[in-house]
Design goal:
This protein is mainly alpha-helical and about 250 residues long. The protein has 13 helices and 3 strands. Helix 3 crosses helix 4 and helix 11 packs across helix 12.
Length: about 250
Amino acid sequence: MNYAVGQVAGFAGVTVRTLHHYDDIGLLVPSERSHAGHRRYSDADLDRLQQILFYRELGFPLEEVAALLDDPDADPRAHLRRQHELLTARIEKLRKMAAAVEHAMEARTMGLNLTPEERFEVFGDNDPEQYAQEVEERWGGTDEYADSQRRTASYTKEDWKRIQAEAADWGERYGSLMAAGEPPTGEAAMTLAEEHRQHICTWFYECSYGIHRCLGEMYVSDERFKAFYDALRPGLAEHLRDAIVANAARHTS
């Protein structure tokens, strides 16, 4: 049997545009074309699409997915084993997060106070203040640093929760954009890059396009920033850097 592009989009829960993009870049080229030139997908094509979507859900960039699937020495069963291992690890991490949330809910219901260790053990060893001294040494004499210090000094706990929520929402949307195969020079990526800049302007300091470009480069060159953004989705640091550059160019040219 073979299937039309609209049928395949419905089966897989993706857009027709995504399937067209996968075809254009050679990641998923339909096995057949109708007499009218319309794409027709075989069962083998659907198998490949399933593999693509598994890897995309795990955060692999499109070019890496293509390299993995086109490796002549790769065993299809090896792909499934690898995906199973990665998914199992992700499930375990989410299970621990869910357990921590349940623990907090139970404590609130029963009127118990959790220890600091119990509250934050799920987040590991990340310390948001560990780079504060380095930041001051690098940028302490700038107007932007002074502005940021002045603004944040007055923020309440609710303000910080809002900042974190906005950043988390942005990260999810940027990850989804990458999963859809959007290029960093596209309108959608540039719009989110501009939102990233505006977030800094709103909460911390006036972030010019020049400063934003410098930040984009730092997100790639500094391993700590790169690790932070790539944890949202592998390859996000470079993708964001390129989107920042493209966005700055369209606003300053």
